[in-house]
Amino acid sequence: MAKKKGLGTKVRIQVKKERKRRIAVAMFSALALLIVVLSSYFAYNFLNQSPVQTLIEPTLQFKPENPNSQLKAAIVDHLSLTNPNQTFTEAAATTLTSAGYTVDYYSGEKVTVEFYRNLPSHRYRLIIFRVHTTGRGAFFTSEVYSTSLHVWEQLNDQIWRVSYDGNEPFYFGISPSFVKSCMNGGFNETIIVAMGCTTLQFNDMAQAFIEKGAKVYIGWTGSVSASHTDTATVRLLYYLLIDKFTIKNAIRKTMEEVGPDPISKAGSHLAALPEESWDYAIQNP
């Protein structure tokens, strides 16, 4: 009997030890899980922290004789870094100011990720993007690419690494997802003129701007040279703002005059989305 009692005591001691071990393991696991959760929380907030909203000042401003605070336009001239064209800038600004718009001109070095992020805050009625684009639809910035900058946006495929020929140097490019998810505020029926290559070969970027509040997105169905898009855009602006043609008729008249891009094998031409905007004519307040 004494021997059996001794075995029972030994078993009880082992059970207590096992219980303590399990409690210790559970506490350690809970602590480890808490550390992981807190680390993830702080990492998320660090990567996704909202940047201070800083509106970038334009390089130049052109004003009409009788400015109207509701009529503001922007020329975003990223191509000034590689294909400067002062004649285009002056011609576009003249047409815009003749129609009553105050025009903010942004030269290439101003075109950064933060510039795009805060662009809707300016409340422009018309924006001309004289900007390099990629076949996937990204708009170039002049900001040199780095893995340590805009980390959250890179992880979420909102910012892409882009280059002119697939080789260094690389730059940040904003994707359609960036327009939808990262731009502060929305566009108030803004007219978007995207002058770069393939800006309407695919619809993703157009749809992003439209979802963000743009009235219409005008772009090219394929590749286009800087000189050809400059000529076409000047004519397009005149028909839209001076002659008050509808979107459809302004594009049709422009293409009749300048024709498809001569270097594009597919005959790149201007087009617009959404289709409901084709009969829209700009009426200034």
Give a written overview of the molecule.
With 285 residues, the chain is of the alpha/beta class. It folds into 2 domains: 1-50; 60-277, Rossmann fold (3-Layer(aba) Sandwich), CATH 3.40.50. It contains 8 helices and 10 strands. The chain has helices at residues 2-47, 86-98, 113-117, 151-155, 176-181, 204-211, 226-241, 247-258, and strands at residues 60-62, 72-77, 102-107, 126-130, 139-144, 159-162, 171-174, 191-194, 216-220, 270-273. It starts with a helix and ends in a 12-residue tail after the last strand. 37% of the residues are buried.
Tally the helices. 8
Shape: elongated
Order of helices and strands: HEEHEHEEHEEHEHEHHE
Report the end-to-end length measured between terminal Cα atoms. Answer: 105 Å
Residue share in β-strands:
15-25%
Which CATH first-tier class of the largest domain would you pick? Alpha Beta
Helix content: 25-40%
As a whole number of angstroms, the C-alpha radius of gyration is: 28 Å
Strand order of the largest sheet: 1-3-2-4-8-9-10
Task: Estimate nothing, just give the exact number of structural domains.
Answer: 2
